[in-house]
Amino acid sequence: MDSIEKAIYGLACLYYIIIPLGYFATLWLPASEMTGKGTILVTGGAGYVGSHTVLELLNNNYSVIALDNLVNCYAEKNDKPESLKRVEKLTGKQIIFYNVDIRDKTSLDKIFKVHSIDFVIHFAALKAVGESVQIPLTYYQNNIAGSSTLFEVMQSNGVKKIVFSSSATVYGIPQFLPITEEHPTGQGCTNPYGKTKYFVEEILKDVCVSDHEWKVILLRYFNPVGAHESGEIGEDPSGIPNNLMPYIAQVAVGRREKVYVFGNDYPTPDGTGVRDYIHITDLAIGHVQALTKLNDTTFFGWKAFNLGTGRGYSVLDVINAFSKASGKIIKHEFVNRREGDVAASFADASLAKIELNWTATRGIDEMCKDTWNWQSKNPNGFKKK
Ligand SMILES: NC(=O)c1ccc[n+]([C@@H]2O[C@H](COP(=O)([O-])OP(=O)(O)OC[C@H]3O[C@@H](n4cnc5c(N)ncnc54)[C@H](O)[C@@H]3O)[C@@H](O)[C@H]2O)c1
Ligand SMILES: CC(=O)N[C@H]1[C@@H](OP(=O)(O)OP(=O)(O)OC[C@H]2O[C@@H](n3ccc(=O)[nH]c3=O)[C@H](O)[C@@H]2O)O[C@H](CO)[C@H](O)[C@@H]1O
């Protein structure tokens, strides 16, 4: 063959063999593998758990579309939520953001039409237990009607893989400890917020029965606390914090005078309530692991997993650990028990270890250190002043 014949032969090989092979290879690869690991729609993505999860998703090569109606997160006018701007800075990656309410079916549908979404992680909800007792209809409308609208839009667009943010609150008063996923749910849910978590779990189970293509993971969180190790994102409650860790943090930073310890006469080692606190980064990684499970071709239907450490700490343990981490004296006073509280609650998280290949690795000292890092760098949360 002379050089012209060789060139023609080479071009023919390229045209008839190599290019078609490349084309068929792209057909064979799942769409998700062409765009990193896939595209995730994260509802409530600007919130506390949402923003930390978005960060872990981006670091694990997923593309993220976040939506949030800004009801419980901070954003400057016409700008992305501050939490997500900081996640973009930390990861060096872009987040597509929509200021949309999950009850707005038309806008939701547009998002599904514009983007090729592989999975949904559903965080958007109202979450204050006390408030839910005052305005139950708002909670049912937002958390249940909103979730059901989201599922309808998913179904009509053929997106049937979801991770749902549930809570240990679905177990009600523990009948045994540690709590396994087999523990009955719904029976002891005493407040509307807890009931919305239980009802949405039940809706998703029914959807799985009606359509065998659905794959649903229910993640039941124990007590998420802490912040990203950078101190750039963290929990930013509006008003007086309802939960222990953010309250302690605000006492340490001088925004509040002392912690009110709700009861010291529980049947626990020091008389104060015992909970299974879990670092927010461990919790966020649990969602990444759940996506891997959703990709498992042998998995269909629904499955619930506890996300906790399996260890309980009392209120006084947490106050002492925070005092050590911050170098501050945390003043506290014992007051009456809070209505609806249980003496102790902690998880058996062995199912998540076996099936999600996930275990919490960060202990109470790291939870307090990272909370303090976030709180001391951002005494007023995401707001500048
Ligand atoms: N933080 C916890 O201790 C905890 C424990 C168990 C379960 N959960 C669940 O995890 C999820 C996230 O909790 P979080 O602590 O990040 O709360 P969060 O309030 O920080 O985040 C929720 C986000 O959802 C948004 N949102 C609320 N209603 C919406 C709607 N109708 N449309 C669009 N966006 C909406 C809010 O603006 C907020 O940014 C919630 O479903 C919550 O119930 C949280
Ligand atoms: C009744 C209630 O709100 N339950 C919610 C709360 O669970 P928990 O009540 O488990 O969380 P929490 O942080 O409100 O309380 C943890 C422990 O600290 C005690 N404590 C709390 C605050 C305080 O100022 N002083 C004090 O002593 C409380 O009695 C409990 O023993 O948060 C969870 C997520 O984290 C879930 O959303 C629960 O549904």
From TrEMBL:
A single MF term (Gene Ontology): UDP-N-acetylglucosamine 4-epimerase activity
Listed transmembrane segments: 7-29
Biological pathway: Carbohydrate metabolism; galactose metabolism
Cofactor requirements of the protein: NAD(+)
Catalytic activity: UDP-alpha-D-glucose = UDP-alpha-D-galactose; UDP-N-acetyl-alpha-D-glucosamine = UDP-N-acetyl-alpha-D-galactosamine
Domain NAD(P)-binding: 41-371
The keyword Transmembrane helix is annotated on this UniProt entry: yes
Record-linked Pfam families: GDP_Man_Dehyd (PF16363)
Family recorded in the similarity comment: Belongs to the NAD(P)-dependent epimerase/dehydratase family.
Cited function: Catalyzes two distinct but analogous reactions: the reversible epimerization of UDP-glucose to UDP-galactose and the reversible epimerization of UDP-N-acetylglucosamine to UDP-N-acetylgalactosamine. The reaction with UDP-Gal plays a critical role in the Leloir pathway of galactose catabolism in which galactose is converted to the glycolytic intermediate glucose 6-phosphate. It contributes to the catabolism of dietary galactose and enables the endogenous biosynthesis of both UDP-Gal and UDP-GalNAc when exogenous sources are limited.
GO cellular component terms, A-Z: cytosol
Enzyme Commission designation: 5.1.3.2
Species of the source: Agrilus planipennis
UniProt-recorded name of the protein: UDP-glucose 4-epimerase
